[in-house]
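Recall from the previous lesson that a structure prediction takes nothing but the amino acid sequence as input. Here we apply that procedure to Cytochrome c551 peroxidase from Methylobacterium trifolii. The sequence below is the only information supplied.
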Amino acid sequence: MSWKVGAACALAVLVFGLADPFAKVSAPANAVSAAPPRAVWRAGFAKPAAIPFPEDNPYTPQKAELGRRLFFDPILSGDGSRACVSCHLPDRGWSDGRPRARSRQDSDLDLHTPTVLNLAWQEGRLGWDGKFRDLESVAFMPITAPGNMNLPVPEALRRIGADASYVQAFGRAFEDGTVTQGRVEAALATFQRLIVSGPSPFDRWIAGDEAAIPEPAKRGFDLFNGRANCAACHGGWSFSDGSFHDIGTGRDEDVGRGRFVPNSTALRYAFKTPGLRDVARRAPFMHDGSLASLEAVVDLYDRGGIARPSRSRDIRPLGLTAAERADLVAFLGTLTSDEPGGTALAEFGPAPPKP
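The prediction returns the following tokens.
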């Protein structure tokens, strides 16, 4: 069944539901202290009530539809062979399944393709090293990069403006059909904020279905929030604090956020905390794609990574048993949505093309 979004509030209702079983409920003042830790932790992952949009780029269905079309259209690449979706595949958790992004020359770019899933909740600067001030500022870096889409801004605007159907679409989304860089950025960002992870077994468990996830995953959840301390950075519904941390990866010139804040010891080798929704679909992992599996990721955290002055204070050797590491992996698996593609997108528009 399909429906047409009429307004931002209507979208939020349709995506998240009128009666939200995930919503936080006020409790007596002494309830938190009396509750067992697991119940308190579960409350911290409650589902948000709506998709947030910035005041200077509010949601409209016309703008979102324009952004959707641009996201899937190779018109924004120099030779017409690539689109945004070429690297952000819905059934790969909106990444690409490669250690590092593929260049247009079929070689490797510098970094692993980050997911665009749940970007509406990613606070602060974006990109593995924080090079983007916000989602609106992301689009034209890959579009203009010679190794990526290789299309200069003036030519991108000329191409779109020469297409009568695009001019009409810009006229519906904005006050007239003029094609500008800012409007392309606004439309793409609006669409990408609709890319939202769908319900997962973890969500059903949070809602009260104790049979939704197995016992090893529940033990993994306790470790995630307790002794392993994963939730220190991967907290909240999207499982990200939106910040930058050195977790003991990155070597030599691979300094992450430290490239832009060179005088900060803490930000040397620091990279953006990715969200963990649909993480099992997004192998390989880390900013450089160096870890092939979730088991390898858990092993890295268990070892504590590289000990150095910039390493986060929350990263330390854990001494987990093999069974505990397996429990953590089992928990991470429960974050996989029932269907790939994102709830808002699946309801909003036609199914995306297969890679």
